Amino acid sequence: MPPILSRRSLLAGTAGLLALAPGLSRAETPLNLGGTTLRAAKYKGREDNLLRAAGQIDPPYALSFGEFASGNVIVEAMNAGAIDVGSMSEIPPVFAAASGARIRAVAIIADDVNNQVVLVPKDSPIREPSDLAGKRVGYVRATTTQYYLARILKAAGLSFADITGVPLTPADGRAAFDQGAIDAWAIYGYSVPITIAASGARVLVTANGYLSGNYIYAARAEALDDPRLSAAIGDYLLRIKRAWAWQQAHLEDWATIFSGAIGVPRDIVLGQLRNASQPNDLKPVTDDAVASVQAVADTFIELGLVPGPIDVAPLFDRRYGELLAKSA
């Protein structure tokens, strides 16, 4: 796999953000913190709507959002100086460590892993992970799906050499699964309940126990070096934490808001929220969290996705640990 942060990808990430500039939202309160503007990454329908619903969209600084489709692109935008803070899985920090990207992991997100699964057709003879031997298994390359699939295979005494791995985008994976071109599909998010509802697909195994349940809030290294931006990032993290507490207490309200924003039926959104392996929360960086990302790095080195060795520890910045712990 080529380095994720090539000059071409950096320019593409920056250009993508600039294209979003006309739609960036701003806080409704007067500008404070010496004219500071915090540029936050968001996923479709998520952070800005959640902060607004929870009454947390009024920080004492200007807040702008750029919408992104993946954590890898958020890392690229941060490294290009176009975004200050954003969330991602444990995977993008591994590529950031391998490429020397100027980002820092500043908080740990507790999130759902029951929405990351291996699906098989309803009439499939595959009943156990060991039955995947010799089968065509779709996954999304260099994402959580490849990581947990590798761990599931290892636990069953198998490896990627024992299957025919088929790297596919989520859309191509759905088409291949529906057409019978793959025997199993490692996939995440709303593709799971939508595919189950449409075809009666079965969950062979969830990623619970194979993924840590940790995700990452990261910040641009230069933003952390700026006292005003660093203070704004800390405030923003607290607002996200409070918003997730509101979400947990208002699952039905949030399902209505979020389903409308992303175009997924409300009952599917609500069902996934209620079936989550753990409620969303924002926590301090811990040694265990660092070790979890290191385990991802070690696995991806074994799979040949990144060159080794990689030490992820320097990516982590614990300056907000006391702030997040006190607010728990």
Word description of this protein:
- It is a single chain.
- With 328 residues, the chain is α/β, with parallel strands linked by helices.
- Helix content is 43%, strand content 17%.
- It contains 13 helices and 11 strands.
- It has helices at 7-20, 47-53, 71-79, 91-99, 144-155, 170-178, 191-199, 221-225, 227-249, 251-262, 266-274, 287-302, 321-326; strands at residues 37-42, 62-67, 85-88, 103-110, 116-120, 136-139, 164-167, 184-188, 202-206, 214-220, 281-283.
- The strands form 3 sheets. It has a 5-stranded mixed beta sheet with strand order 7-6-8-5-9, sandwiched between helices.
- α2 (47-53) links the parallel β1 (37-42) and β2.
- α2 crosses α9 (227-249) and α10 (251-262) packs across α11 (266-274).
- The chain is globular, with a radius of gyration of 20 Å.
- The model is unreliable at 1-31 (pLDDT under 50).
Task: Provide the low-confidence segments as ranges.
Answer: 1-31
Largest sheet descriptor:
5 strands, mixed
From the N-terminal CA to the C-terminal CA, the straight-line distance is 40 Å
C-alpha geometry: globular
Helical amount: 40-55%
Output the number of helix runs: 13
Overall SS class: alpha/beta
Summed over residues and divided by their number, the pLDDT gives a mean of 90
**Strand segment count:** 11
The arrangement of helices and strands along the chain is: HEHEHEHEEEHEHEHEEHHHHEHH
Radius of gyration: 20 Å
Strand fraction: 15-25%
In which order are the strands of the major sheet placed?
A: 7-6-8-5-9
